[in-house]
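One-letter codes give the sequence; the fold follows as tokens. Both lines appear below.
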Amino acid sequence: NITATWTGHDICGNTTYLGFYCAALPGRTKKPTVTVVIFNGYGLRAPKLEGFIDHLPDLALFHAASNDFGGDIPYLTGLAYNYKINVDSNLQIQDDFSRDMVGSHVTTKVHGYCVNLDLDITFHLRPGKDDKKGRSIPGATDSKALLLNYNHLSGPLPVNIGFSKLSYLALANNRLTGAIPPSILHLQDSLLEVLLLNNQLSGCLPHELGMLTKAAVFDAGMNQLTGPIPSSFSCLTSVEQLNLGGNRLYGEIPDALCKLAAVPAGRLANLTLSSNYFTSVGPACLSLIKDGVLNVRNNCIPGFANQRRPAECASFHSQPKACPAASATHVACPAGAANAAAAPADRVVKDYSSYVTYATLHE
């Protein structure tokens, strides 16, 4: 019984609050505060998370996969994260939260016991138990992670989610509804990975998604998203895993998107667009299909194998469409997009366990 360890009023004191981890923040009093919550696999149940996460103002990492939490996702703008966490692939994200600390004098908390050691904090997170390679995740500094796969979260994504400075967002296998808010644009300087797969999200793909030029993973497969792929997706120069399969997308698969896998600088290793209603592809996309990078099965592309029945395609395309057409004009990408191109040696197909968010699906 995890909650039986939650005794007393001082979470960061000499108690046994399993799942809570504390640290003293730089520039403040040395009194520890809750900075990390790990409930992964605890089987906890609560009708909502509102009033909990949003009342921990110094929270940097919240990992609670495989629980029974419901309700809406809380507003995260009050989490004024102000110290550094470097995230790479060499410490387990789990309830046995061992630590590897870099820098002088760190205060942390392991199973409720504070260990005073000062200032800068560096946790190295390893996403998979068998990953011994220690690969680092570039740019993963000043990170915040919200990892809530396999719960019963419902309702829409918060309209101001873009103001939370998240780096890792994993909300797979929930019951989230509504559109992806355009405010996600404001995560362009921080967001590295996002999992929204297997929810009930709907609406058009916002143009702003294409401005997330630091994101290596964007997975919104198995939802009800619709519309054409915005031309801004050609700006996703850091993306390695892009999954939009199992939605209601249509139109042409943009050739500019497929060129994100082109040598010598492309990073894109997997582009999944299966089980949609696309009707055509360009030359660069044809090349990716041959190379096994692009999956277009179960669409409406004439002359291609393994497509939907013509009657099914005709029925879908006869329905009114409310999403704006994809622009054929040149898109002005953010200044950092060109700098995100990979060196040839960096363009390798990674195992899914090497990504922080995908690894949380299998813990």
